[in-house]
Every structure is written in C-alpha cells, then in structure tokens.
C-alpha cells in the first residue's frame, strides 16, 4: 500500500485526490498540508506547513501529491525530496528555473518526480492526436477554457500542447496576423508558434480545443473535463510510476508511454 500526503489539501483538486485515495485499496491517506487551513482545523493529520509534521508521521509517507501553485510546488519539492519522498504535482505556472531545480533534486536524491500539467487521459490523447494531425496542416488555433478562479493563463496544459505539437512539425505553422487589431490581444497570445486563446467562466472545469484549418475544411479536437474525478486515474497512475521508476518526468504522456 502506498501512503500519500496531499499538499494543497483544502483545494478542490486536493479534496478530489482525498476521495480517490480513500476509495482505493492500494493507497492510504496519511496527512494533508494546506497553508490556508484555519488553526482550529489543524489536527494529527492536517497541518498548515510541511515543517509542522512530526517526524513519526512523516516517516509513514511514501509520496507527496501536490495541487497547490508554483510557489507551493517549489517549497514542497525543496522539503520533501531531500527526505526521499516521491512527488507527483499538478501545479502549473512554474518557470524553467524551478523545473530545472526540481530535476536536480530528483537526480541528486534518486527520488521519483512527475510534473504533469494535466492528469486526464483524454487531454493527453488530444495532445497525441494533435501531433499526428500537425503533419498535414499549416494553420492552427488553440482555445482553452477554465473555471473563473484559475489564477494563471494560458493553462499549463495549453502551453504543453502548443509546444508538443509545434515540436512535431518540422517547418512550423503559418501564423496569420490581422492587419488591424481593434482590441489588443484579440488574436490571442503566441506560444511555440501557436495562437492560444484563454476563456475563464463559471461552469467550466477544463476544456481544450485544437482547431486545424485548410482550404475547404476544418479539423477540431475537443477535450472537456466535466468533473475533477476525470483526473484521478492519471494521478494514481503517476504515483505508482514514480514509486517504481524513481526518475524525473514531465507530462502524463511519458507515463502512458505514448
């Protein structure tokens, strides 16, 4: 049985992980950490800071599952990896310097780490299918939609999709620039040669749409996560992977061997 600590325990994703772990016979929730936990709710299993966890309790943990933010990811990596705790994170918004540092920690302490901007199998397949389609089209747009409380834009998944699809196309995509932009940013933001458009709306969890265009036709791939439970099989699969392989990976596609 793999014993889990959730960082970002009180968040919606953290609570979804709690349900998934408690519903499985192969995992056990040992503790939760969240900087937003009120003092009155702190207990023997819920802590405000990672450093507040007693050594005896920490010795029970096998893997940290992180759904906080870029700062939370950096902090938990610096504290957990040197204690040889595996790390699976869905936090986004971190920069290349942070990723490089976490990779160094993983290699130095021989600890498995998986950084995945999206844990949905469908989202990973969208990326994979888009990479195949990119060989046949020169024009593309990417639209991502998330709930109104998501703090970063575009989504980490959208940036990852743009990079993967752009990397799979030798000569790059044709970028269409409007001669007159009446409103700044109307054409989206350019990432890896692909225009990304970000929507933030209540009622949305996570949605990504790839739109390829050619004379006389449009090809679209849409993935829509309507419930956070869609991410949980990928999260648990990532935990099993880092426990077994003890290496550093970025992206669920590496774990699914696509």
TrEMBL record:
GO cellular component terms, A-Z: cytosol
UniProt protein name: 4-hydroxy-tetrahydrodipicolinate reductase
Keyword ATP-binding tagged: no
Record keywords: Amino-acid biosynthesis, Cytoplasm, Diaminopimelate biosynthesis, Lysine biosynthesis, NAD, NADP, Oxidoreductase
Limits of the Dihydrodipicolinate reductase C-terminal domain: 122-256
Organism: marine metagenome
PROSITE patterns: DAPB (PS01298)
Reactions the enzyme catalyzes: (S)-2,3,4,5-tetrahydrodipicolinate + NAD(+) + H2O = (2S,4S)-4-hydroxy-2,3,4,5-tetrahydrodipicolinate + NADH + H(+); (S)-2,3,4,5-tetrahydrodipicolinate + NADP(+) + H2O = (2S,4S)-4-hydroxy-2,3,4,5-tetrahydrodipicolinate + NADPH + H(+)
Keyword Lipoprotein set for record: no
Entry's family note: Belongs to the DapB family.
Biochemical pathway: Amino-acid biosynthesis; L-lysine biosynthesis via DAP pathway; (S)-tetrahydrodipicolinate from L-aspartate: step 4/4
Pfam families per the UniProt record, alphabetical: DapB_C, DapB_N
GO MF term set: 4-hydroxy-tetrahydrodipicolinate reductase
Single Gene Ontology BP annotation: diaminopimelate biosynthetic process
Alphabetized InterPro entries for the sequence: DapB_C (IPR022663), DapB_N (IPR000846), DapB_N_CS (IPR022664), DHDPR_bac (IPR023940), NAD(P)-bd_dom_sf (IPR036291)
Entry-linked NCBIfam families: dapB (TIGR00036)
EC number(s) from the headed UniProt entry: 1.17.1.8
């Amino acid at each position: 049985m793999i014993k889990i600590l959730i960082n970002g325990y009180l968040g919606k994703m953290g609570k979804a992980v709690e349900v998934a772990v408690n519903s499985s016979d192969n995992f056990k929730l040992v503790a939760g950490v969240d900087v937003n936990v009120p003092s009155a709710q702190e207990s023997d299993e819920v802590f405000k800071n990672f450093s507040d966890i007693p050594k005896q309790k920490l010795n029970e943990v096998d893997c940290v599952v992180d759904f906080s933010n870029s700062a939370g990811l950096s902090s938990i990596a610096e504290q957990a990896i040197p204690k040889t705790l595996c790390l699976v994170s869905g936090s986004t918004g971190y920069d290349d310097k942070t990723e490089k540092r976490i990779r160094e920690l993983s290699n130095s302490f021989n600890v498995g780490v998986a950084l995945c901007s999206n844990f949905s199998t469908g989202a990973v397949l969208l990326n994979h299918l888009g990479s195949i389609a990119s060989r046949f089209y020169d024009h593309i747009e990417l639209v991502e939609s998330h709930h109104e409380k998501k703090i970063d834009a575009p989504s980490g998944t959208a940036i990852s999709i743009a990079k993967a699809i752009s990397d799979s196309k030798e000569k790059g995509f044709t970028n269409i620039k409007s001669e007159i932009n009446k409103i700044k940013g109307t054409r989206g933001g350019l990432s890896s040669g692909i225009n990304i458009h970000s929507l933030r709306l209540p009622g949305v969890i996570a949605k990504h749409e790839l739109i390829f265009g050619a004379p006389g036709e449009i090809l679209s791939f849409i993935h829509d996560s309507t419930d956070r439970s869609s991410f949980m099989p990928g999260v648990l699969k990532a935990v099993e992977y880092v426990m077994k392989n003890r290496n550093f990976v970025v992206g669920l596609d590496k774990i699914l061997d696509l």
